[in-house]
């Protein structure tokens, strides 16, 4: 019998169709429901992009107002949940805190197992509303500060920043942060989205799919790279060290975080927009030294390996300059990607087939047990 071809990492394997987003590496383009992500980032609020991902169309004024009202009603976490999260060891990674929060929200939802599209859209909205408070709680706890109460007079991004820092930063910083949320919101069948679809394909519930997706996003080959990028910048220290640092790292066969991509081989479509946002924040926050490291390492990496940065490369230093603690960078990615994941969960359910690939056995040949 001929050995079937093995597709390690499912590279290049097309497993389904999707109408949520399209990644085209040939033209370096990314569209959400048909709209170029750069145009969405420039002209639309994150709230509108969330609606687009969930419903397939941009919202009317009335639809947006209705969604915003529901979102504002679910911004604050139940007191028991806050207590449980603050009871986790201070050393817990914020991604673990976030994963636990989603799990608890699921366990407390009497409709957890209702997999209708309507029920899942309501759950998606509540998670999207609650996640900024979870991220902000961990950010503030790391600084010995108590959680704050959400502000209904603020938009999603402003409230996220207010909950994290106790004030709304200047509009340049808010805009850069919101740009990152729009760019991080969705990216077709990446590892975490695929994870959410695998879990959903067993007809499990949305919270289980999201907790699994958070686990997948945590790894440094996926979302965890935005934190690893900042650790790398700290090791490099100054732009003048970038070339030598890179030579040593490559000689030690290290993966350089924030570079390379499974799909984009000519550059990540989102990087130019996020690099501009990073430049804006750097200008507002005295981050010229960080910008210099950014450019020096990107040049050196291209010269050495021909590899381009991915979205995590500009996002990490931007979050640092905004004032976030490094371990909350990937949780921020979750707060944005919850929109894409949940759109995919409903899409999976609408035309479900259990996801269960095959493997070629490579272990011991059949043998007999010796115990009588
Ligand atoms: C939002 C996101 O999730 S974007 C991705 C974030 N992840 C990172 O930034 C982590 C660093 N990057 C990587 O590890 C990889 O580029 C991945 C995992 C993202 C993509 O990997 P793959 O599609 O499997 O590409 P693959 O690993 O086959 O890379 C091809 C070659 O480039 C090399 N390469 C790719 N990325 C890197 C990197 N960041 N540093 C050093 N070498 C790299 C590989 O070692 C490989 O070399 P080889 O052919 O000599 O063995
Ligand atoms: O698409 C991928 O493999 C990873 C990625 O960039 C994302 O999830 O945003």
Automatic annotation (TrEMBL):
KW Iron (keyword) present: no
Gene Ontology CC: one annotated term: cytosol
Pathway: Carbohydrate metabolism; tricarboxylic acid cycle
GO biological process: carbohydrate metabolic process; tricarboxylic acid cycle
Matches recorded under InterPro entries: 2-MeCitrate/Citrate_synth_II, Citrate_synth-like_lrg_a-sub, Citrate_synth-like_sm_a-sub, Citrate_synthase, Citrate_synthase_AS, Citrate_synthase_bac-typ, Citrate_synthase_sf
Active site feature: 261, 312
Keywords: Transferase, Tricarboxylic acid cycle
GO molecular function: citrate synthase activity
Superkingdom of origin: Bacteria
A Pfam match: Citrate_synt
Reactions listed under catalytic activity: oxaloacetate + acetyl-CoA + H2O = citrate + CoA + H(+)
Protein family: Belongs to the citrate synthase family.
NCBIfam families: cit_synth_II (TIGR01800), PRK14033.1 (NF010636)
Protein name listed in UniProt: Citrate synthase
Organism: Amycolatopsis antarctica
Lineage summary: Bacteria, Bacillati, Actinomycetota, Actinomycetes, Pseudonocardiales
């Amino acid at each position: 019998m001929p050995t079937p071809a093995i597709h390690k990492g499912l590279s290049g394997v097309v497993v389904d169709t999707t109408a949520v987003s399209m990644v085209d590496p040939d033209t370096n383009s990314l569209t959400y429901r048909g709209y170029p992500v750069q145009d969405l980032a420039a002209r639309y609020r994150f709230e509108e992009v969330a609606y687009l991902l969930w419903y397939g169309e941009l919202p009317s004024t009335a639809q947006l107002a209705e969604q915003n009202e529901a979102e504002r009603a679910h911004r604050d976490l139940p007191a028991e949940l806050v207590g449980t999260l603050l009871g986790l060891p201070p050393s817990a990674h914020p991604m673990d805190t976030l994963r636990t929060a989603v799990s608890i929200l699921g366990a407390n939802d009497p409709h957890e197992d209702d997999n209708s599209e309507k029920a899942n859209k309501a759950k998606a909205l509540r998670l999207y509303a609650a996640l900024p408070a979870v991220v902000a709680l961990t950010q503030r706890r790391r600084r010995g500060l108590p959680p704050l109460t959400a502000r209904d007079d603020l938009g999603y991004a402003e409230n996220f920043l207010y909950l994290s820092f106790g004030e709304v930063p200047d509009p340049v910083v808010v805009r850069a942060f919101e740009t990152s949320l729009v760019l991080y919101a969705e990216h077709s069948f990446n590892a975490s989205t695929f994870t959410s679809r695998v879990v959903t394909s067993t007809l499990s519930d949305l919270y289980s799919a999201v907790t699994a997706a958070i686990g997948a996003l945590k790894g440094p080959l996926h979302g965890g790279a935005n934190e690893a990028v900042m650790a790398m910048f700290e090791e490099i220290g100054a732009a003048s060290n970038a070339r030598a640092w890179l030579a040593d790292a490559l000689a030690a066969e290290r993966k350089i975080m924030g570079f390379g991509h499974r799909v984009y081989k000519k550059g990540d479509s989102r990087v130019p927009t996020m690099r501009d946002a990073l430049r804006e924040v750097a200008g507002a926050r005295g981050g010229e030294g960080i910008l210099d490291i950014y450019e020096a390492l990107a040049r050196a990496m291209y010269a050495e390996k021909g590899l381009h940065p991915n979205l995590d490369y500009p996002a990490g230093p931007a979050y640092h300059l905004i004032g976030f603690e490094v371990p909350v960078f990937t949780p921020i990615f979750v707060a944005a990607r919850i929109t894409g994941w949940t759109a995919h969960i409903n899409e999976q359910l609408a035309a479900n087939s259990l996801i269960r690939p095959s493997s070629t056995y490579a272990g011991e040949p059949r043998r007999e047990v010796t115990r009588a």
